[in-house]
Design a protein that fits this description.
Strand content: 15-25%
Structural class: alpha/beta
Shape: globular
Helix content: 25-40%
Number of strands: 10
Oligomer: single chain
Radius of gyration: 18 Å
Number of helices: 11
Length: about 250
């Protein structure tokens, strides 16, 4: 089983906590994207990133000095979003770190797919970005089925904890014999179920921590997740979706 998650926009450098073990699988393709971004104007980059001037300036400065081989941070520590805060990889035990290194994969618009201890640098490039390239008009066309193929070369069972924007770069290229199961985290209000973005991010991070603590190896075991007030809702689940519901 492999678990896929989304990255986070906010990133940091941390070269002291854990050592990187490898470079990203698709580093040459990330270098190609880096060169393309470095050739764009400030206004073009700001429009691509859809951000304010402060964030644009920060990331332009990162691009100007970007070196994808030095000063690297393990991917699992590089992202700072809500999901990663709830995952709290900085306090994983050695056994839990080995679990995520084997089972967890981070999807990335810039790097493609990452193992937790792959070395990365801070960047800004979301998977849904409209960046024209030799294969088409956006990053979905740039990566094509390469991310999915890399994942399927490791496993025939994928637990999807990624957002739709990221998971579709895998789900759009499913092969016969591959099991792809998405976790939904819903709030029940009366008779209706809703998915709230922030609460979903919290639950996804907590789920990764839960799986690592229990060294879970199958989708069936995932259904025992019971944190943050969630419980598995069998009536709202099927072979491709595991639905967890919190009341209120």
């Amino acid at each position: 089983m492999r678990i896929i998650i989304s990255p986070a926009k906010k990133m940091n450098r941390n070269v002291d906590s854990f050592a990187c073990r490898a470079l990203p699988r698709f580093l040459p393709r990330a270098e190609q994207l880096c060169r393309q971004l470095q050739g764009m104007t400030y206004e073009e980059l700001k429009a691509l990133w859809k951000c304010n001037d402060r964030i644009a300036q920060q990331n332009v400065e990162r691009l100007q000095s970007m070196d994808l081989h030095r000063g690297l941070t393990p991917a699992i520590l590089a992202y700072e979003g809500i999901q990663y805060q709830y995952m709290a990889p900085g306090v994983f035990t050695s056994e839990e770190l080995e679990y995520v290194q084997e089972h967890l994969r981070i999807l990335s618009g810039f790097y493609g797919i990452l193992r937790p201890f792959d070395g990365v640098v801070p960047y800004r490039l979301e998977m849904q970005a409209k960046l024209p390239n030799e294969n088409g008009k956006d990053l979905y066309s740039y990566w094509g089925k390469s991310i999915a193929d890399a994942l399927f070369s490791e496993t025939d069972c994928v637990l999807n904890l990624a957002s739709r924007e990221y998971s579709q770069c895998v789900s759009a290229h499913l092969k016969d014999g591959v099991r792809f199961v998405t976790c939904r985290f819903c709030q029940r209000t009366g008779d209706s179920l809703t998915e709230k973005v922030t609460l979903c991010k919290m639950a996804r991070g907590e789920m990764v921590r839960y799986l690592a603590e229990r060294q879970i190896e199958s989708v069936e075991q995932v259904r025992t997740f019971d944190r943050l007030g969630y419980h598995y809702e069998e009536d709202e689940s099927d072979e491709t979706v595991c639905t967890f519901v919190a009341e209120g």
